[in-house]
Design goal:
Helix content is 28%, strand content 25%. The chain is α+β, with helices and mostly antiparallel strands. It has one domain. Keywords: Transferase.
Length: 116
């Protein structure tokens, strides 16, 4: 009998843009077509990477690799801020107004016993 693959959450953190730009604070008015395209649910994407062979210490290697990935993503978010992250909706009653903005993005590290 085959063992069921196990997925284990190792860590989770939020990543924000490394540098705040004036463009990230600008209001972008949306058309009715744009508003219709806003998803009510998060669009979740995941990237799978093959873990490189460690050169020295396994734990230090993984910590260093994760820090580099987090740093790279934070730099990328500075350039593509409106296209990534969580959409947050803010509603006011007086005057009636909806604001949808990008908050941040999440990084989740996990292990799997499944063979790819």
């Amino acid at each position: 009998m085959m063992d069921t693959p196990i997925l284990q959450r190792v860590s989770e953190c939020f990543i924000k843009a490394k540098h705040s730009t004036q463009k990230s604070n600008q209001i972008c008015h949306l058309t009715p077509w744009d508003i219709a395209m806003l998803s009510a649910h998060y669009i979740q994407k995941g990237l799978l990477y093959k873990k490189p062979e460690p050169l020295v210490n396994q734990h230090d290697f993984i910590e260093n690799l994760l820090e580099k990935l987090k740093h790279s993503l934070s730099l990328t978010l500075s350039h593509f801020y409106p296209l990534s992250g969580r959409l947050v909706t803010h509603k006011t009653k007086d005057p009636p107004f909806y604001a949808v903005f990008v908050d941040c993005t999440i990084i989740l590290e996990s292990n799997s016993s499944m063979q790819l």
